[in-house]
Write a structure and sequence with these properties.
180 residues, 16-stranded parallel beta sheet
C-alpha cells in the first residue's frame, strides 16, 4: 500500500471524517509527522478504516463529548486523547499501540490487540464479543490495566500462559470489572 505523510496541522474536523484505505487490499499508511486530528465542537465522527496511522505523539484530540471515533481493520500507533468522554467503536481486526484516554470503548466482534496501558485511563471498556488478543509470539506475561471493564462469555481472550512456571498475562481492572 501507499504511504502518505502529513506536512501541516490537520485542523479541526467538521462533521464526519473517514480516513480510508483499500478494503481487502494492502493497508494504506498515514504518517502524521507530529500533527494530529482535532475532534472539536463541529465534529461528529472520525473513522479509521483499513489504514495504519503513525504518530510519535497524539493521533487525535477529542474535545466534543458527542463525537465518536471508529476504528475498523486498522493499526493505530499513537494516542487518542480527550478532555471529555467520547465513544470509541472497534470492529474488524485492530491493533492499538497507544492510549485512548477518557473513552467509552466497545467491541462486539472482531479482533483486538493492545498495549498494557492502552485502556488504563479509559472511562469504560465493554467487550461483548470478539477476540481480545493479549498473546505474543514471544511470551512476555504482562499486566494489562483497564480502569472499568465489562465483558461477557461471547468475548474470548488469548493470553500468554506457562503452566509449568505458573505465569500468565493478567488483566487488572483498577476500578470495576463486571461480566460472565
Amino acid at each position: 500500500g501507499a504511504t502518505y505523510t502529513a506536512g501541516d496541522d490537520l485542523g479541526a474536523t467538521k462533521g464526519t471524517l473517514n480516513v480510508n484505505g483499500i478494503a481487502g487490499g494492502a493497508t494504506e499508511t498515514l504518517n502524521l509527522n507530529g500533527h494530529s486530528f482535532q475532534v472539536g465542537a463541529d465534529a461528529t465522527a472520525l473513522n479509521f478504516n483499513n489504514v495504519t496511522v503513525n504518530s510519535n505523539s497524539n493521533i487525535a484530540t477529542v474535545t466534543n463529548s458527542s463525537a465518536s471515533i471508529g476504528i475498523n481493520n486498522s493499526i493505530i500507533n499513537g494516542n487518542i486523547i480527550g478532555d471529555t468522554a467520547y465513544a470509541l467503536t472497534l470492529t474488524g481486526k485492530n491493533t492499538l499501540n497507544g492510549t485512548v484516554d477518557l473513552t467509552n470503548a466497545s467491541m462486539s466482534n472482531g479482533e483486538l490487540a493492545f498495549n498494557t496501558d492502552t485502556f488504563a485511563s479509559a472511562n469504560s471498556v465493554n467487550f461483548s464479543g470478539g477476540n481480545i488478543n493479549l498473546g505474543s509470539t514471544t511470551p512476555s506475561y504482562d499486566t494489562y490495566t483497564i480502569k472499568n471493564l465489562t465483558s461477557n462469555a461471547a468475548a474470548t481472550y488469548t493470553i500468554d500462559f506457562d503452566a509449568t512456571n505458573k505465569r500468565a498475562d493478567v488483566i487488572s481492572a483498577t476500578n470495576n470489572s463486571t461480566g460472565t
